[in-house]
Amino acid sequence: MIEFRHISKSFAGTAAVQDINLSVGEGELFGLIGPDGAGKSTLFRMLVTLLLPDEGEIAFNGRNVVDDYTYVRSHVGYMPGTFALYQDLSVEENLHFFATLFGTSIQDNYHLIEGIYKQLEPFKKRRAGALSGGMKQKLALSCALIHKPLVLVLDEPTTGVDAVSRKEFWEMLQKLREDGLTILVSTAYMDEATLCDRVALIQKGRILRVDTPQGIVARFGKPLYRLSGAGVQRFLPLLRALPQVHSAQPFGDSVHITLGDEEQMDEVVQQLRKAGYKDGLQPVTPGIEDCFIDLMLEANA
Amino acid sequence: MQELWVIITKEFKHIFRDVRTLLILFGLPTVQVFLFGYALTNEVRDATIAVWDQSHDVTSAKLVNKLLASDYFKLAGLPQNYDEIKDGFRNGDYMLALVIPANFAEDFNKGQAKVQLLLDASDPNMANILASYTGGIVNNFVVQELGYRPPYQIVSELRMTYNPELKGVFLFVPGVITVILMIISTLLTSIALTREKELGSMEILLVSPLKPAIIIIGKVIPYMLLSFMNALLILTLGLLVFKMPMLGSFLLLLGELLLFILAVLSIGIFISTRTSSQQVAMMVSLFALMMPTILLSGFIFPIDSMPLPLQIISNIIPAKFFIIIIKGIMLQGVGLEALWQPTLVIVGFIVVFTLASVRSFKIRLS
Questions:
Q1: Which of A205, A216, B110, B197 is placed for a possible disulfide with A17 were both Cys, Cβ 3.0 to 4.6 Å?
Q2: To probe the interface with A, which of B14, B203, B365 has the most A CB atoms within 10 Å?
Q3: Which of A69, A84, A101 sits opposite B6 (nearest CB)?
Q4: Residues of chain A neighbouring B209 (CB-CB closer than 8 A)
């Protein structure tokens, strides 16, 4: 459905994305996972014809997005990173406006947005600016869906949204995927990666890895341990100085470390005891975030 | 067509739901008309005058009475010597002093009377106006008293055509309409597009099948209607409150108004397509347009008395041409046959800026 081939783009001499190759199949829920400034928005903006790539080409349903930009614009549903609906128009007015822009009406395509819009309907006279963060995102999603797009492109839709609304939002995306829509979504939340069919991990404008979330975790080759307890992060400098420790990263209240191999665990525990650490090292199964950090360190090395 | 309609209605909603925009649109023009109409006028009324009458006879008293009977002067002192007059000027007690020498009545009957007029020329324009007013009244007095015009005297008889009473407001109302339309229309339209850019909604508008021309036209029409209503409001105030004459065709005036509005709107849209933030757009339309419009359009300072380079620059100020047109229609009562040239220039502005806007409208983010 979508094909990025050797895409590079720089702004004023600074490379935003470099040599990106990606392909997204029809009906896939594809996640672009990476921190702020990784180049996610730039990639999406090139896909939706807002920016021109410096190099490479992008195919949208078999058509070149530069030459055939009008086709893309009629067939993509795009939700920008910032809330871009009209704050001084009501929920209903916003939806009506965007439906009309695409030559359709709320009535004609109501079935597409019914599941999402139903929750908004009690507030349909309320101005969009007065909605909560989660509600705004639902409205923006409804507006992006109202013209029955082939592909939905969502740029960080859950940023700044509370945990419950985030969960709801992803459930909606899952449902849309079941209906056969192709969805590209970017996020800086690593935990959301597992909700996608496939993800691309992106950092500093380069793709680190593209795989299913399970595949990415399965390829994490090193033993991973957790140190827990109050204030364990004070051991970080010590851990990073140890030759046996491959990496040591803060992880919430705890610390995750990877070792060259499992046998080195005892040595590390000894060193930690000397420094006053009481507990042991618990082996943990790696998550997407562990994988991302690992790949990132590898790429930077 | 439906797309166009939905953009127009949306734009109206933006305007009517924002108190600030409404205030700028309708409050500002009204205040300006009254300000310019009443406060900023160079007409003379109740100018302070001192009289030193050394003659104290019937004739001199008549002359003083005649001066004071006009609306122009208000007696503010009766000095008895030149030092007192000097002090009065220094204290700002009066702006002019009339000195009537002794034996005024006798000399007058011999036909040799003289009066002296001293003026505070720290405001030279005002001094000039006062001198000519006084001169006029004195001449009038002479004719009246003698019953005939004095012989051997070249009298240039002045007739102020089109504005016999030299009312400043006749000059200001056309100027105010022009300047206000220029500022309001360019200001509001220039921020209309940049607001969408800043808000991010431009991204969605661009990623839609909408054509740039539809976006631009949809944005122009609401402001065109509002600007037109605005112009009518100012015009009504001018006609009713300031008793402007309306000698020419009202329909022609409305047509010319629409043309001028289109011209300034196209400039506003052009600014909008070239800037990316509301603030920059506002700065450009306020400073780059307002100052030249007020200074170089002939609204306040006559273009003919400007140095040549400024006269040349004034030709790129659309307001200059519209002031010519509106004065022509309202005060001179002329029709299109006399005004086709400035009309053509305004049409030229519309064409140039509309084309430039469409060309510089970016179909992508820069």
A1: A205
A2: B203
A3: A101
A4: 70, 73-74, 101-103
Around Cβ B156, how many Cβ atoms within 10 Å?
4
How close B220 comes to chain A (CA, Å)?
17
Residue B55, φ and ψ in degrees, nearest 5: -95, -40
CATH 3.40.50.300 holds for A2-217: yes
Which residue type, as a one-letter code, is found at position B169?
Answer: V
Closest CA to A252 of A229, A218, A272, A273: A229
Out of B18, B200, B208, name the one closest to residue A101 (CB).
B208
Surface of A (58-117) touching B: CB under 8 A: 69-70, 73-74, 76, 78, 80, 82-89, 93, 96-98, 100-103
- Tell me which residue in A52, A87, A102 faces B364 most closely, judged by beta carbons: A52
Which B-chain residues 210-229 have CB contacts (< 8 A) with chain A? 210
Contacts of A74 in chain B (CB under 8 A): 208-209
- Of A51, A82, A100, nearest to B365 by CB-CB distance is A51
Interface probe for B, chosen from A43, A95, A97, A142 (most Cβ of B below 10 Å), is: A97
The type of residue at A142 is S
- Decide which of 1.20.58.1370, 3.40.50.300, 3.20.20.20, 3.30.70.100 is the CATH code for A221-285: 3.30.70.100
- pLDDT tens for chain B, 366 residues long, are 888 999 999 999 998 988 888 887 888 888 877 877 776 655 677 888 999 988 888 888 888 888 888 888 888 888 998 898 888 888 888 888 988 888 888 888 887 788 888 888 887 777 888 888 888 888 888 888 877 766 655 555 656 666 666 666 677 778 878 888 887 788 888 888 888 888 888 888 888 888 888 888 898 899 899 889 888 888 888 888 878 888 889 999 999 999 999 999 999 889 888 888 888 988 888 887 888 888 888 877 778 888 888 888 888 888 889 988 998 998 888 888 889 999 999 999 999 998 898 888 888 886
Chain A (111-170) residues lying within 8 Å, Cβ to Cβ, of chain B: 143
Residue spans of the domains in chain A: they are 2-217, 221-285
Does any CB of chain B come closer than 8 Å to the CB of residue A52?
yes
Is the Cβ of A45 closer than 8 Å to some Cβ of chain B?
yes
Cβ atoms of B343 and B336 within 8 Å: the answer is: yes
Min Cα distance A74 → chain B (Å) is: 5
ipTM rounded to 2 decimals = 0.83
